[in-house]
Amino acid sequence: MPTATRTARPRLATLMTAGVSATVLVTVLLLLVLVDHFAFDYAEREAGQRLQQLSWQMRDALNRVVQKATGDVALLSTLPQIRDASSPAEIRQVLENLQKTFPDYAWIGLATPDGKVHAATQGLLEGVDVSARDWYKGGQNQLYAGDFHPAVLLGKKLPQSAEPWRFVDAAGPVLRSDGSYRGVLCVHMSWGWARRLAQTILAPADQRYSADIFVVRGDGTVVLGPKGMEEKKINNTSLALSQAGGTGALKETWDDQRRYLTGYSLTGTKGDPTTLPWSILVRQPEDMALAGARALERQILLLGLVLGLLLALAAAVAARRLTRPLNALSKTIEQRLAAPSAAAALPDIAIIDSYHEVQVLSHALAELLRNEQDHLGALRGLNEKLESTVAERTREIARKALQLERALAQEQSTQLLLQERAAELRAILDNAHDAFIALDPGGVVLDWNRQAERLMGWSRAEVIGQPLGAMVLPPLLRRAYERDMRQLADAGAAADGAGNAPVLNRRIELTLHNRAGAELSVEVSLAYVPRSSGHLFIAFLHDISERKSLFASMQEMALRDTLTGLPNRRALMQTLEEALQRANRLRQSCAVFFLDLDRFKQVNDRYGHEEGDELLRQFAERVRQTVRKTDTVGRLAGDEFVVIVEMLHSDAAAQETADKLRPALGRPFVLKTATVTLGASIGVAIHHPDDPADIEMLLGRADRAMYLNKQQGMQQRARR
């Protein structure tokens, strides 16, 4: 046979190995592109949302503290001890009691209309002119919140501290009971509360994410931030956006030339002088925010390289096994082709029984060699078919391997993300300031955080699987509780979790029992959570016992006369209005007695104010002991007292009460240094059921009757 010149070609085993390796390389590169595109974008959005939520938490906390301070100023300005007391010591005692309750109030003081401090905690700055201070100017006509500023007058008078004294002010006007202007009441809050607040919010995030919180004043000055940044001015995009009222997160370069992710928001309400417009910025280094995505990219690259090497090795072994029979056939053919044309004997084509294709090929080659010229085309077609089948199966194996690799990577990524989210949620719940309780539809406890353990007294291990109503509710209320839980579940399911039930997604106040049996006043926020296997309820409980106790105490102080313990003018007005309504409803008359102690000023001037106060206390007690227990006795002002007598069957009954009062009040009063005998002028005004319910007119009639009685008494004494 003539020998034709042939170009050297790569072997089939080499081609298969190279094809598998190239496929794995392309797959790894595609995975890296997908990670860069999706994982990094997701990580950036996630970090931005986290920083934005931290800025919201700081914003809401600052707003609550400033609003509480202005609210305390408003409440103090209504107390009689502040409005009408003439002694600085009496006012100072009330202010110092509030300071003991809230130690962050570094200084509380009342300034008179001429700008001088009348009374203050520990007597600091009393008599000092503060009319030029911003809080005095801003608080003369309305509630006012003063921005962050250094201590000017109090810096050297307050105790030494590690940091210089800085204040935030809350001020407001004070009016006397008669409506006249008393002055301006101011609270200086130490800036230390803001530092503690930032540490409380940022502590978990700072340990894990290296985040920083900035509180920036309107002029760009940092009033709270990392060490070395406070009281310096900054100017960046996030600050401008927050000052414009926006909220969100972005990537930006700070003054240290580092790239950060920054969440931003703005405190206060525009146009409200009782709030402060501070920009809240929470930043995190960009490399720290995207560290998880970088680690995932390295893991995928390493896994791809290892998998590529393994698949390349496997492809080489498989290719050698598959092509071994073909190599034997090709060697025989090459020998036949290389043999000279005049060769007497050519190598025979052996019949190979390795696998079907090779067996068929060997038979075909044998027949082909016998009929070489006639079957050359058939041989070529069979060879092409064989190569196509091998290539198709190789591609199918590679495709299946790629699909399996992607599925495994996706499952691992999902499992890791779920574990991270579960750990984050557990940490948030365990460190929350409010108690967290998760319940199934039957009211059985599914979860219980640390704050719930401290508030209710049971540990988490003790309550899981137990019905909540049996622990915190008395037996008489448990059946109603179970019925309400079923109604809430039906209402939540009908709204598909939208929370249309009256108590879902709203804050309500309840009274519960802790483990010791003590009652707890709590504020509850209840939500309905639908799940694939049913639904559950989650509740956040906030202890408001101290707040309610303090409010009730201050409300009681606002309605009582501090000298006699009787209802003051405000309480009398409320009681008189209710008495007139009952008189009209029950068709029974009521009477108002206006009492004035005769010659009280002479006793007060002669024996002193302490004896005068003792005389007023004995007078009030004698009036209270003389009238019925159902009647109301109150002190209007000075030596003027009012008695409200209800359920009168006739006008004569009112006169009988007046006749009992006159001799009782005419008996001597035994004081510490003297025994005095005084009289009392009594004016009576009767309200009949059909009379108009006009309180001022009724008091005016009683006042005029009292003055007429006083003039008659003076005339009788003059005749004597």
Give an overview in words.
This protein is α+β, with helices and mostly antiparallel strands and 720 residues long. Among the domains are: 69-190, Beta-Lactamase (2-Layer Sandwich); 432-549, 2-Layer Sandwich (Beta-Lactamase), CATH 3.30.450.20; 559-719, Reverse transcriptase/Diguanylate cyclase domain (Alpha-Beta Plaits). 51% of the residues lie in helices and 20% in strands. The protein contains 20 helices and 21 strands. Strands 2-1-5-4-3 form a 5-stranded antiparallel β-sheet. A 5-stranded antiparallel β-sheet has the order 7-6-10-9-8. Helix 17 (600-607) runs antiparallel to helix 18 (609-626) and helix 18 packs antiparallel against helix 19 (651-666). The radius of gyration is 45 Å and the shape is elongated. The chain starts with 11 loop residues before the first helix and ends with a helix. The model has no long low-confidence stretch (mean pLDDT 81).
How widely separated are the two ends?
A: 170 Å
Helix content: 40-55%
Q: Major sheet: order of its strands?
A: 2-1-5-4-3
Mean pLDDT: 81
- Secondary structure tally, helices: 20
- Tell me the strand percentage band: 15-25%
> And the CATH topology of the domain at 559-719?
Alpha-Beta Plaits
The global form is elongated
CATH class of the domain at 559-719, anyone? Alpha Beta
Structural class: alpha+beta
Strand count = 21
- For CATH, the homologous superfamily of the domain at 559-719 is named as Reverse transcriptase/Diguanylate cyclase domain
**CA-atom Rg in angstroms:** 45 Å
**Low-confidence region ranges:** none
Instruction: Please give the largest β-sheet.
Output: 5 strands, antiparallel
Level-2 CATH architecture of the domain at 559-719: 2-Layer Sandwich
